[in-house]
Amino acid sequence: MKITDHIKNAKGKTLFSFEIIPPQKGTSIQKLYDNIDPLMEYKPPFIDVTTSREEHIYIKKEGGLLEQKITRMRPGTVGICASLMHKYKTDPVPHVLCGGFTKEETEYVLVDCHYLGIDNVMALRGDAMKDEAYFNPQKEGNKYASDLVGQISNLNKGNYLHEIIETTYNSNFCIGVAGYPEKHMESPSMESDLRKLKEKVDAGADYVVTQMFFDNQKYFNFINAAKEIGINVPIIPGVKPIAIRRHLNILPQVFNLNLPDVLVNEIEKCKDNKEIRQVGIEWAITQSKELQKAGVPVIHYYSMGKSDNIKAIASKVF
Questions:
Q1: Please, what are the averages of pLDDT over each run of 10 residues along the chain (318 residues)?
Q2: Residue spans per domain, the chain
Q3: Per 3-state DSSP, what percentage of the chain is helix, strand, and coil (rounded to 5)?
Q4: Phi/psi at 11 (nearest 5 deg)?
């Protein structure tokens, strides 16, 4: 079922969803199941599955020389989506990236998703490679998320890349995109970033999931600003509980966000990460209850492969 249909069927009730990261190559999928199992009692209508782009690795050769190779350490997004459908009877949402994929490779992924009966995809530009300062699009790939949305929309109309296929068996993907309540780090202004979001919606995006934020007013302001420029699709808030002290520095740097002073002060009082984890849970519970009261369609949690803190939050909210 499409995400937009789940939202309509909920008739105003706030739904629970979360995001998972595929395990690395050579790792059992059971650990992933062990983290998903405790969250299923809260009946998530959909689960997002991230896609990792390629990265450089260095293999030591004879004489101490290093050989550079490119690989993906976390493949299997589509396979995991298939397993979620089979094991949990829930709708998976595979992330589809511009970075690291040609348009043809993207079409293959979308066709596989269509064969499996997957109804939803999340279209993202993706980040720069770890050893690159800026995002570089793949040769013969999509440059922007709006381009990727356009490719998916065309496929929904039966338009394949090489125009050699005539079909009435079209895909009908519900397309999600990312939104940034505190703007994307590369955008020169909030207004410019909102215009980019409008381009994605105009290209065919059906809903938006926001980047994490820790001040709900940022989300409410973002919603109002989006409506003012004509963005009328559902905008789902993304929430992440702080879990370790390093998050105070990493999250603002990596995700271009601000942490409220009240939250920072509470974390700085903590003696260890166990206490920090509890502060993060309590902050996310307060955030979630306020968002729920405001009538948001879904609260989407960034689990980062751990479920104990998400379960602690969900048990108080849903």
A1: 98 97 87 95 97 66 66 77 96 94 94 96 82 74 95 94 78 97 94 97 98 98 98 98 94 93 96 96 98 98 90 98
A2: 3-317
A3: 45, 20, 40
A4: 50, 50
Distance CA 233, CA 3 (A): 11
CATH code, residues 3-317: 3.20.20.220
Both structure tokens of 11: 């008739």
Q: What is the dihedral of CA 299, 107, 51, 120, to 10 degrees?
A: 20
CA angle 274–279–284, rounded 5-degree value: 125
CA atoms of 303 and 296, how far apart (whole Å): 19
Q: How far is CA 278 from the centre of its chain?
A: 24
Cα–Cα distance, 275 to 118 (Å, whole number): 40
Regarding pTM above 0.85, the answer is yes
Who contacts 9 (Cβ-Cβ below 8 Å, separation ≥6)?
1
Pick the closest to residue 209 from 179, 239, 188, 167 (CA basis). Answer: 179
Written as six digits, the tokens of 211 are 């980047």
